[in-house]
Amino acid sequence: MTFSGSISKCFRHYADFKGKAGRAEFWFFFLFTGVLDGSGSIVDYQMMGNDFWDVTVFHPARTILMVPIFLPFMAVGCRRLRDAGRSPWWQLLIFTGIGFVPLLYLWSREGRSS
């Protein structure tokens, strides 16, 4: 699967929590999300300067870019976990903060043949 193909597939299936997603589809979308997050952070830093590092400050550019990505990211994450043979409920670990680390491992597992 190509980079652009995986991005378009993730947006087409933005609320589809059923089915499976291959590693390429997931990791290309993960990379896309990281690039958007980094771009928003750069814009926010340019606007706010040193106030950017204050955790109480709202980051508007980053928020505008990341809010629409949230649901597609959760959906492709659930589909990826299902492909790796795990319950999609493991995706809820992302809300614990430290749960992102075991999710990286689970997302990277090879898919099971159906």
3D structure, described in words:
The chain has helices at residues 3-12, 23-48, 60-83, 100-108. With 114 residues, the protein is mostly helical. It has one domain.
Oligomeric organization of the protein chains:
single chain
Number of helices: 4
Query: What amount of the residues lies in strands?
Result: under 5%
Radius of gyration: 15 Å
Distance between the termini: 19 Å
- Helical content stands at 55-70%
**Count of the separate structural domains:** 1
Count of individual beta strands: 0
The major beta sheet can be summarized as: none
Mean pLDDT: 91
Which sequence of SSEs, written as H and E, runs from N to C? HHHH
Q: Please state the structural category.
A: mainly alpha
Uncertain regions spanning at least 5 consecutive residues: none
Which outline best applies?
Answer: globular
Features:
single chain; 114 residues; mainly alpha; 4 helices
Q: How would you summarize this macromolecular structure in one to three sentences?
A:
The protein has four helices and no strands. With 114 residues, it is an all-alpha fold. It has one domain.
